[in-house]
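Now for one record:
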Amino acid sequence: MSGRKQIKATGRYLSEDHDATAAAGQAYAAAGAIAHDLNTILTTIYGYSEMALESLDDSSDAGRNVRRIIEAAHRARTLTGQLLDLSRRSAPEKVSVNLSDAISETLDFIMPSVRNNMTVIRQMKAPDLFIEAVPEQLFRVFMNIAVNAIQSMEDTGGTLTVTLDTAGKEEGEEGGAVRSHALIRFADTGKGMDSETSSRMFEPFFTSGKKGTGTGLGLTIVHDIVREMDGTLNVSSEKGRGTIIDLLLPVAMFGSLPEIHYLRNPKE
């Protein structure tokens, strides 16, 4: 594909020399306001869903569907909490996370939104890779990239292929220690982007989607989370042929802590 761009997440969008700090600050303030509004809506969803569940048999189709609504609301509340953390610039604790499981659980979450004319292929070539990350942040990264890919295929259908593999070793900045990296690739056969669009895709409030389909903050947050993990984003896109986004994330260096299943209902 043409138009390949490498974005080393260092606080600049596509390495352009402009004040990303001020733009990110505006994005975080807006994210906090959005999160507060969403929490109000989620409270209403919780309330009516729980009332509906009380009048239904849990084993019925309707009961199972309402239960799925409640589970989705739990996950949405996790995301609004993440937005509030960003707006407060707090630093949640990192843990050791199994990348294969994190990717699989994220894809399971979005599968109900995948249309019949789309296919999602999972290629977990290195299933035992762990990284140090905040689980909810990692979910946010994977979900935003995957949802964008699905939206790009809405009109024509297509295939999203998600691959996890090793990516060799890379020397740290200023002669730092050499670290192994994981490669997470999201490759779709959607509408793709021209060079102007791809050059702005991580800017706050920029969106190429249809009116009302997004705030333009999702990929901005992805960029900052990857930066915090000392990761790299590689983007290849061609109009009419699709987009490939590669994430290179440093593998955990000091062994693996117990695996975290961060998308499950905490009450379970």
